[in-house]
Each structure stands twice: as C-alpha cells, then as structure tokens.
Amino acid sequence: MELGYARVSTTHQDLERQLDALGHHGIPDERIYTDKKTGATIDRPGFTELRRYARSGDTIIATNLDRLGRNLRECLNVVHELREQGIGIKTLKDPIPIDTTDDSPMAELAVALLALFAHMEAYSGSVR
C-alpha cells in the first residue's frame, strides 16, 4: 500500500502543493500524514503515526527526500530503518528519482546524493 507524507517547517507554511502532488499520484486523503514542524527533529506527530501504521510491503511517498529529514544522517537513518522493516520510500519531485523498493546500487546512490544535497542546502541556509 502507498502512504503519503507531507511536511513543512513552520505552521505559517502551506502543505497544499505537496498534498496536491500526493493526491495526483493517487494516494487518498485518509492515507496521507502531515506535519507542520521542522525536519531538524525526527519527533514529529504525523511522521510518528505514519511509521506506526506502515507495514512491510508498504511504500511511503513524499514529494522530496528532505521532507523525511533535514540532514544527511537523519535521512539515511530513516531510509535504512524503514528498509529494514520492509517499507519502501519513493519521491515524486526529486531531480534524481528515489525508489528504495529497488535494491540496486543506483537506488542507494540516489538516496545518498539527495540526502547530501538536502544537508548542504540546510547548512548553507544556517551559515548566512
């Protein structure tokens, strides 16, 4: 089963574009989990509920990998933990498609590269 996840960093930001993309992908509203909280912490209510609900064979769909975590280590840890539970991750809008249901080395490389880019982007924003 495909489950959706959308997150924005603050309560002032809008989830609408992410929700539209997930809906257009075919995920019904009742299977979409959301958070309006920074990705700097894994302690997010919607993400916690999603992880409790997801079962082996399910796939979590997000618009971008950085919706799951804010830094390289966290993204990689989340992907690793979910894969160990048999739960895949796919992204809809990343420049390099992510699909961890594919065990190929290219899929692992794509996850690592996008997590690194998200980490670099977050770091460069905090340095300014």
Question: Could you tell me the strand content as a percent range?
Answer: 15-25%
Rg computed from alpha carbons, rounded to a whole number of angstroms? 14 Å
Largest sheet: 4 strands, parallel
Rounded mean pLDDT is: 84
Q: Fill in the CATH topology.
A: Rossmann fold
The CATH architecture assignment turns out to be 3-Layer(aba) Sandwich
Give me the side-by-side strand order of the main sheet. Answer: 2-1-3-4
Q: What's the CATH C level?
A: Alpha Beta
Kindly, what is the distance between the CA atoms of the first and last residues, rounded to a whole number of angstroms?
41 Å
- According to DSSP, the number of beta strands is 4
Shape: globular
Structural account:
- By secondary structure, this protein is of the alpha/beta class.
- It has a single domain, classed as Resolvase, N-terminal catalytic domain (Rossmann fold), CATH 3.40.50.1390.
- The protein is built from 4 helices and 4 strands.
- The chain has a 4-stranded parallel beta sheet with strand order 2-1-3-4, with helices on both faces.
- The longest helix has 23 residues, at 105-127.
- It is globular and about 35 Å long.
- The model has no long low-confidence stretch (mean pLDDT 84).
